[in-house]
Amino acid sequence: MVTKRTLAATSRPARLKVGEVFAVPLDDGRFTACQILAIDAEGPIVADLRWIGAVAPALDALRETPLLQADHHSWRGEIAWRRVVPASLPPVTWRSLGVLPVSTQAVCNSYAGWRNVGREIVAQARWDALPEAARRAYKATPYPSRAAIELDLGATKLTMRTHASSAKLSSGDASVRWSELDRLPRLSEIDYAGTDGALLEYVCARPMIDTLGWSGHGRAELDLRGTNLVEVRTSVDAPLRLLLPSGVRALRVTGDPSLLTVVHPTDGRTLELELYGDVRGAPLGIPALRHLSIVLARRVAIAPLLAFPALTHLRVHGEVVEVPDPEQLAGLRALRQLAVFQCYRLDVAKLPRAAEAWPDLERVSIDGFRKVDAARWKACLAGVRTVELRGGKTDAYLAANLDNPFRDWADRSAARGRKATAAWRRARGALVEGLPRDACEAVLRAFVDGFNAFDDVDTIDREEIGEAFFGLARAAGIPDAEAASWFDAWRDF
Q: What's phi and psi for 460, nearest 5 deg?
């Protein structure tokens, strides 16, 4: 009997070839394809093909298939390609189909990882399925635009740029005049705090809206199955049954995930779940979940995650993460990729050995660890194809900086690290117990303004600034939803 693992191994090349074509499985169960256009010292240049289907394609079916030139949303016919960094072989789940002639010699200036392959063909397929009038109105709206309009939503008023793609509002128990949002042709995201259930009817009738954040709805059940959503965000502080359409790929949850029951057509197999905060429980109803991220956490118990035996990707990005039961990771036998950030309180000696626990593990990224544990990490991960071990710190350094969320910034730039640390220490020192709410707001605003002065704040920097901000806000007793609205309104990065 030939196992799936053996099939993957026999179809995997020892090295890449120019012109090589791969069948790429998508998270929703479909397939696409890509081609290696060039290979140099920096790595392979990989282009998406304009093909998507229910089963993996044969090489002959792709001979006349062009490269994907995306025109969805703000794309204008550019080739969907990237130079893969760091240079590596594709995932083991991809299948090499053979070699076809390369159709372009253009210069690629885009850099990304293998996982970005296939994203644009999925987005393009969704775009092509939208009503033509909605697509035409989107493209006809100038971006960026200086023009601003005032939206009178009844419960609140918003002043927005005409090119705005997202709207954030709060109405409490008051009703909202949702049709006002139709004046924003590019609107694809709504973030709402309030109880007005008319939002559901509005989103169902607007397939351009693909992202919804809804907190404070006060419902025991939220049925989103009639929408065209791709991403859903919600806060859970009471039992909640959440019914999702098959198109939802990302579910982001704050609060207590153990109070959440998710109903999804694939039992979570095509979902990416992101949990915010400490993990002591897990949502019900998605046993086939494969992708899980945990962020803004200080303590992550592994035992609740065993509710997801099919988990292939696990990412923990917290603040000095403590893992009380690391030996339980051995129960996640299907793991392919593991990423752990700031795991200084992780007892590496209790970790299972990768060769015994995770037969399919192909990539591990550890960022932030005790230097004294380096040899243990290497022994634990022996045999894993790609291991990234970064950010080792001495015990003396950690004793002085363990509570500093910007402790690693000095590794990239000493000057930026000093400024970031100073901003955080000023804010932490000012947020004393009993400080009035308006004074807390002023301190947090000053903290964000300090980073507004920085040049070139990238995505990772922004995430780490946000984590530090939310930590300060929680210490001041500011609810996460309100802190999030402040952060988004104040930041220029």
A: -65, -45
pLDDT at 8 > cutoff 80:
no
**How many whole angstroms separate alpha carbon 33 and alpha carbon 96?**
10
Predicted structure pTM score:
0.80
**Is 70 exceeded by the pLDDT of residue 14?**
no
Per DSSP, what are the bridge partners of residue 260? 240
The pair phi, psi for residue 310, each rounded to 5°, is -90, 5
Give tens-digit pLDDT for 440-458.
999 999 999 999 999 888 8
Nearest alpha-carbon partner for 237 in 219, 224, 222: 219
Give the pLDDT confidence of 91-145 residue by residue, as tens digits.
888 999 999 999 887 789 999 999 899 999 999 999 999 999 999 999 999 998 8
Domains of the chain: 4-128 (no CATH), 148-406 (3.80.10), 407-493 (no CATH)
Q: Are 67 and 29 in contact (CB under 8 A)?
A: no
β-pair partners for 274: 252, 293
Whether residue 275 has pLDDT greater than 60:
yes
- What whole-number distance in Å separates Cα of residue 297 and Cα of residue 276? 7
**CA-to-CA dists, residue 332 to 26, 108, 290, 326, 401, angstroms:** 22, 38, 10, 11, 33
Q: Could you identify the residue written with the tokens 């993996």?
A: 56
Mean pLDDT across the chain: 91
Burial 46-77 (b: 16+ CB within 10 A, else e): bbbbbbbeeebbeeeebeebebbbbebbeeee
SS3 308: coil
Please give the Cα distance from 401 to 420 (Å, whole number).
Answer: 13
Distances in whole angstroms, Cα of residue 101 to Cα of each of 167, 354, 465: 46, 40, 46
Provide φ and ψ at 402, rounded to 5°: -60, -30
Burial class (CB in 10 A: 0-12, 13-18, 19+), 7: exposed
Amino acid at 124: Q
Copy the structure tokens of residue 474. 């929680």
Q: Could you tell me if residue 118 is left (phi over 0), alpha (psi between -120 and 50 degrees) or otherwise beta?
A: left
Tokens 């989107």 correspond to 138
Shortest CA distance to 88 belongs to which of 137, 50, 43, 55? 43
* DSSP SS3 for 84: strand
Residue reference for tokens 């290497």: 378
4: pLDDT strictly greater than 80:
no
- pLDDT tens figures, 342-387: 888 899 999 999 999 999 999 999 998 999 999 999 999 999 988 9
